[in-house]
Amino acid sequence: MQHDSDIPRPSLPSAGNRRRDQIMAVLLEKRHVWVSHLAADLAVSAATVRRDLRRLASQEDIQIVHGGATLSPQTDYSFQAKSLRHPDAKQQIGHLAAQLVSDNDHLFLDSGTTCLQMAPLLRLKKQLSVIATSVRLAAELASPNVNVVLLGGHFRPSRMDTIGPLAISAMEQLRGYVAFIGADGLSSDFGPSAGDMESAYLHQIIVRCARETVLLVDSSKFAASSLFRIAAWEEIDKVVTDCPPSQQWCDFFQESNIELVHPTGLACHAQESND
């Protein structure tokens, strides 16, 4: 039996690393930052911000300009931008989701940043089979205990994943797995959704062929839906999130027979008693 003490805990980032992550998150959102604004927002000196920007420029495709820094217009930062949003929540969700996995399970993990957080804990399981479209995820899962099936298709360098007809055709040949998927937004009447049409369509096939589907979403995703639906709510079995959603959402999940999992326990469990 695996104990909590056996689970690897990530080391806490230094203050400088956290600050540079904050700067990068602002850059990814606004594509340009000013030293004076960052210094005020982060409560540090302008000299510290300039050092952070030089450090980032040595690691990332950003350009130092007079008074600040800017992103290269030719680069797609979509995956990195998502990875810097709510990192603590995603790590928490990944930990909870991995606890739903047993030895010898067959899984599908999507290429999003939240599912990526499951990888360190899944490597500790025994005889797992994991279907993936993400090269990054496949590398993170590298272990004698994990058999990774990496789907082919059209490769997206910015996300390091595959999409398109070949990936869809391969998924249609597979059954008996538990699908762990993310979403960009949620709506009680529309369902979980994504902002990317090709990913959304592939997810529809994945959910349709799965024996069970677990949706991983941080609390910010309950605010609004995105453009393309991933699945109908009747196709979702569990929702894993970082904190309890509103009572309206709890009631909706209970009425829909969807189990809600979050760090405070299984409050709003679909099967809970009314006693």
Give an overview in words:
- The chain has helices at 15-30, 35-42, 46-59, 78-83, 87-98, 113-116, 119-122, 135-140, 165-171, 197-209, 247-255; strands spanning 32-34, 62-65, 68-71, 106-109, 128-132, 146-150, 154-156, 161-163, 178-182, 185-187, 191-194, 212-216, 228-229, 238-240, 259-261.
- It is α/β, with parallel strands linked by helices and 275 residues long.
- The chain has a 7-stranded parallel beta sheet. Strands 1-3-2 form a 3-stranded antiparallel beta sheet.
The CATH topology of the largest domain is Rossmann fold
Give the total of domains: 2
Order of helices and strands: HEHHEEHHEHHEHEEEHEEEHEEEHE
Distance between the termini: 33 Å
Mean pLDDT: 85
Task: Briefly say what this structure is.
The protein is an alpha/beta fold and 275 residues long. Helix content is 36%, strand content 20%. It has eleven helices and 15 strands.
Layout of helices and strands:
Layout: H1 15-30, E1 32-34, H2 35-42, H3 46-59, E2 62-65, E3 68-71, H4 78-83, H5 87-98, E4 106-109, H6 113-116, H7 119-122, E5 128-132, H8 135-140, E6 146-150, E7 154-156, E8 161-163, H9 165-171, E9 178-182, E10 185-187, E11 191-194, H10 197-209, E12 212-216, E13 228-229, E14 238-240, H11 247-255, E15 259-261
Parallel strand pairs: 4-5, 4-9, 5-6, 9-12, 12-14, 14-15
Antiparallel strand pairs: 1-3, 2-3, 7-8, 10-11, 11-13
